[in-house]
């Protein structure tokens, strides 16, 4: 038995520790020496945003909650606006919904590029291949010369931030490595461009300024539509010609990762991108062991037995509390453990896509996913895997970006983006939608015109939570069980599985 | 590294100088400052406390220099939790190796949970244990973002973790704040961070205010004074509802008058837009007042309701007393 700890687990958002217990692998079919018996996921940072919000003006919420996370602030802002709309007994205007969708799409695209290239790719791409580059692309040969110089200078950490790293089975083909590295470089500019598109409507990114219950502060202007359109066109080209083919290429290079990192067969999707006040582009739904049911937020509870809180356990978020107890015996994470009908759920792009399959919604999206899966001999069920999550994320990115073109066309410069509303003395409301990383919910209670209680249940809280009161491990903890590891000193396989969920710890603890 | 010519450096130095308001005379010096970041004479260690990573995201949206050059060449980013390939023990070893060789640049993002050390752990130890030697041995310490500068959102009224700024942490540990620079805003604009760094490397510590250590070149003029809607304020033309494209947003809650930042000129995301152009009142994300008090909400809409309730309560009270 070997205990392997990765702390800090870098190239995610925030402070995450993964601790695994490994046994010797006895299955002679595989050459790997170790097999993960069990895993523990630990979030290491706490701010208490839910506590800070108590007693504040409800309209402060959409700005304060964005600061929960600098990578996916927009989903938090919109969840808060939706919760307020319910509490104020009003609803979003058509322009308001579209503007919120467009800012959110910009954040989705930004997130996809960041995750695949900046965070996940370095687990697969062999950066050292750059030294063998013989072509004459100025950007890549610039990188090569820089790397050579760094190595020659004999520094403390040459070629940082790319080295040092865990050693492992990186891509061997030089051309594939170099092509992915070139796209890594390009992705930086593309993600900045995605935020520029959102900034046209949001005023600034991240932490956008124009979100408002019922819509947005910003008015629809024809010049803004054109400006956003130009940027979106360029992004769609990059998605179709570079991002999606790269993910497909990686999938073909590592087909075994469609069998590694399988999480629970329980998928949650709250739906996202409001097409009207009653309909969403990505439809909500819950699939547990293949059976589809309607998403119902009342089924959500939060456990804290293994979390650093002395709050009551198994509470619905409306009644949930946040009382920190940093020295609690037996606890091992700052994340609470949300459960749906007492089950640990998997959320994120793969869960969303599997729910769309089950609902027979978004045919084109499912068709493309089928086609890509066929190329490696897979089927939709294989989306529940480390590589499946990457594939689902890229497929979804293409379709929401293309859909956003139509939303731009639907904007009406003659109509307002928000409408007036009354603030109630008391009220309750909730807003559930899908953030790039999965299902997000905000629950709000107002008393005496100020916030009485505010609770957030966040994508990574679902995926990376500790065990619940019944001892049931979370999606990440379950997906690591059984993972084969070649070298316990260089547990690169563990990092690949965890990173496929795109964890965001600032979000998940808040 | 001959991919970047002297000429290009000069060009970027000039645009930096213009941005900082220094005039062309300083362009060559700033260009050399940039060159020093490029050639990696100075290593950068980037640590995060109670942060949301928004400042890192914002830095990577930098326009000139662009994000790629910034990370692979301009900044010699020895360690950054979001970008480094290194993880686990490999990462910790590298950080400790770096900290033992004084003179690097420490960039710190987020607040320090001084009232609850376990609210931010690195390798099972409170962040403070790593932060203390990292600050002591750094050549310059840059607090990036509003959380690191003032405590920011985690330190808002109610502050359950005792979140505090890097300055407060340094003062509590009796460390000299002479080499501290703070670059607020939520998130910190890439221009202010890169600009401050280039200035420091070539010309030494930029002029800064004594209380919060913010470089005056970016943080001495109020958003209000430079706001394109300033004349509406002077003419008392105020917006009464959201979505007003012209009038002054002061009565909706705009905090521009107490916010010292160059937002109106610099703008956001490569000058794509900024808050007031998007009809959004300034929420003072650059100041020590950001989120600070429950009684100072971002928007004034709710104030009217609460004030009305108070008056109603008072009048019913006096009525019942009268009876």
Task: Describe what is shown at a glance.
Chain A is an alpha+beta fold. Chain A has helices spanning 49-53, 61-64, 73-87, 94-120, 138-152, 174-202, 222-253, 349-359, 363-375, 386-410, 459-464, 475-480, 492-500, 505-509; strands spanning 2-6, 16-24, 34-43, 211-212, 215-216, 266-269, 272-276, 279-282, 285-288, 291-293, 300-303, 337-340, 427-435, 438-447, 450-457, 484-485.
Would you give an account of this structure?
- The complex is a heterodimer of chains A (510) and B (323).
- Helix content of chain A is 40%, strand content 17%.
- With 510 residues, chain A is an alpha+beta fold.
- In chain A, the strands form six sheets. Chain A has a four-stranded antiparallel sheet with strand order 1-2-3-16. In chain A, strands 6-9-10 form a three-stranded antiparallel sheet, with helices on one face. Chain A has a three-stranded antiparallel sheet with strand order 13-14-15.
- In chain A, α3 packs antiparallel against α4 and α4 runs antiparallel to α10.
- In chain A, 61% of the residues are buried.
- Chain B folds into two domains: 213 residues, Rossmann fold (3-Layer(aba) Sandwich); 95 residues, Cytochrome-c3 Hydrogenase, Chain A, domain 2, CATH 4.10.480.10.
- In chain B, 39% of the residues lie in helices and 10% in strands.
- Chain B contains 13 helices and nine strands.
- In chain B, a hairpin with a 2-residue loop joins β5 and β6.
């Amino acid at each position: 038995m070997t205990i392997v700890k990765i702390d800090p687990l870098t190239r995610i958002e925030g402070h995450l520790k993964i601790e695994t217990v490994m046994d010797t692998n006895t299955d002679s079919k595989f050459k790997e020496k170790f097999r993960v018996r069990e895993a523990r996921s630990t979030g290491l940072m706490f701010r208490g945003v839910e506590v800070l919000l108590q007693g504040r003006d409800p309209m402060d919420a959409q700005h304060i909650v964005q600061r929960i996370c600098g990578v996916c602030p927009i989903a938090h802002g919109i969840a808060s606006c939706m919760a307020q709309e319910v509490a104020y007994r009003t609803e979003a205007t058509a322009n308001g919904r579209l503007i919120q969708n467009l800012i959110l799409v910009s954040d989705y695209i930004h997130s996809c590029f960041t995750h695949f290239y900046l965070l996940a790719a370095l687990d697969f791409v062999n950066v050292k291949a750059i030294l063998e580059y013989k072509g004459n692309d100025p950007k890549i040969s610039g990188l090569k010369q820089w790397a050579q110089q760094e190595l020659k200078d004999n520094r403390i950490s040459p070629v940082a931030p790319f080295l040092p790293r865990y050693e492992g089975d990186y891509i061997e083909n030089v051309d594939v490595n170099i092509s992915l590295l070139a796209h890594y470089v390009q992705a930086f500019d593309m993600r900045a461009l995605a935020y520029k598109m959102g900034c046209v409507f949001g005023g600034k990114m991240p932490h956008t300024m124009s979100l408002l219950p019922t819509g947005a502060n910003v008015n629809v202007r024809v010049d803004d539509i054109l400006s956003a359109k130009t940027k979106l066109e360029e992004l769609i080209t990059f998605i179709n010609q570079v991002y999606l083919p790269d993910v497909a290429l990686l999938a073909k290079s590592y087909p075994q990762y469609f069998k590694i990192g399988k999480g629970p067969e329980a998928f949650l999707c709250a739906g996202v991108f409001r097409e009207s006040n009653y309909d969403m582009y990505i439809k909500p739904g819950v699939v547990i062991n293949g059976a589809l049911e309607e998403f119902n937020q009342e089924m959500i509870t939060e456990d804290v037995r293994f979390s650093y809180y002395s709050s009551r356990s198994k509470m619905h978020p409306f009644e949930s509390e946040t009382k920190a107890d940093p020295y609690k015996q037996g606890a091992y994470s700052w994340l609470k453990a949300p459960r749906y009908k007492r089950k640990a759920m998997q959320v994120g792009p793969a869960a969303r896509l599997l729910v769309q399959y089950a609902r027979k919604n978004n045919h084109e999206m499912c068709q493309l996913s089928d086609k890509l899966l066929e190329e490696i001999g897979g089927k939709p069920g294989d989306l529940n895997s480390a590589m499946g999550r990457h594939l689902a994320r890229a497929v979804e990115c293409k379709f929401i970006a293309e859909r956003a073109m139509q939303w731009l066309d639907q904007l009406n410069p003659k109509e307002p983006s928000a409408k007036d509303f009354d603030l109630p003395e008391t009220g309750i409301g909730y807003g559930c939608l899908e953030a790039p990383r999965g299902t997000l919910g905000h629950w709000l209670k107002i008393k005496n015109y100020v916030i009485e209680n505010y609770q957030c249940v966040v994508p990574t809280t679902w995926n990376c939570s500790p065990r619940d009161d019944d001892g049931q491990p979370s999606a990440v903890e379950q997906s690591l069980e059984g993972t084969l590891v070649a070298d316990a000193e260089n547990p690169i396989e563990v990092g690949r599985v965890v990173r496929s969920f795109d964890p965001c710890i600032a979000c998940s603890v808040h | 590294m001959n991919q970047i010519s002297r000429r290009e450096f000069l060009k970027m130095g000039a645009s930096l100088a213009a941005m900082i308001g220094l005039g062309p005379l300083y362009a060559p010096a700033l260009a050399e400052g940039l060159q020093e970041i490029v050639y990696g004479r100075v290593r950068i260690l980037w640590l995060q406390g109670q942060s949301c990573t928004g400042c890192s995201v914002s830095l990577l949206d930098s326009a000139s220099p662009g994000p790629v050059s910034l990370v692979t060449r301009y900044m010699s980013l020895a360690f950054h939790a979001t970008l480094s390939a290194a993880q686990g023990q490999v990462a910790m070893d590298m950080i400790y190796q770096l900290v033992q060789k004084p003179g690097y640049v420490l960039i710190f993002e987020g607040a320090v949970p001084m009232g609850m050390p376990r609210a931010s752990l690195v390798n099972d130890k409170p962040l403070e244990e790593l932060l203390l030697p990292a600050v002591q041995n750094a050549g310059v310490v840059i607090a990036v973002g509003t959380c690191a500068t003032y405590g920011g959102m985690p330190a808002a009224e109610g502050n359950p973790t005792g979140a505090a700024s890097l300055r407060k942490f340094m003062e509590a540990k009796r460390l000299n704040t002479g080499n501290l620079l703070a670059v607020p805003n939520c998130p910190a604009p890439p221009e202010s961070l890169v600009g401050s760094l280039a200035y420091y490397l070539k010309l030494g510590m930029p002029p800064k205010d004594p209380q919060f250590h913010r470089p005056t070149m970016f943080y001495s003029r109020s958003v209000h004074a430079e706001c394109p809607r300033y004349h509406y304020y002077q003419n008392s033309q105020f917006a009464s509802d959201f979505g007003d494209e012209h009038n002054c947003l002061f009565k909706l809650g705009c905090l521009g008058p107490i916010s010292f930042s160059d937002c109106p000129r610099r703008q956001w995301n490569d000058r794509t837009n900024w808050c007031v152009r998007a009809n959004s009142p300034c929420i003072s994300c650059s100041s020590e007042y950001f989120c600070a008090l429950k009684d100072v909400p971002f928007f004034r809409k709710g104030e009217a309701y609460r004030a009305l309730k108070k008056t109603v309560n008072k009048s019913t009270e006096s009525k019942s007393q009268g009876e």
